[in-house]
Amino acid sequence: MNTFSLPRSLLIVSLLLLLSACNDAAITQVAAPAPHVVVEIIKEIDIVPEMAFIGRTEATEDVSLRAQVEGVLLKRHFTGGDDVEAGDLLFEIDATPYNTEVNQQKASLKHAQSAYKIAKNRWQRGQKLINTGAISELDIDELTASMNQTESDVAIKQAYLDNALLNLSYTKIMAPISGRISRSKVSTGDLITANNLELATLVQLDPIWVNFQIPEKTLTKARKEFTDGLTVDTDDLTATINLSDTLDYPHTGKIDFIDNRIDQSTGTLAIRAIFINPKASLLPGQYTKLSLAMPHEEKIVVISQSAVQEEQQGRFVLVVNEENKIEKRMVKLGTRYDVRWEVIKGLKLGEKIVVEGLQKVRVGIVVETTEQTETPFASKNEK
Question: Which of 122, 164, 219, 310 is in Cβ range 3.0-4.6 Å of 105 for a Cys bridge?
Answer without folding.
Answer: 164
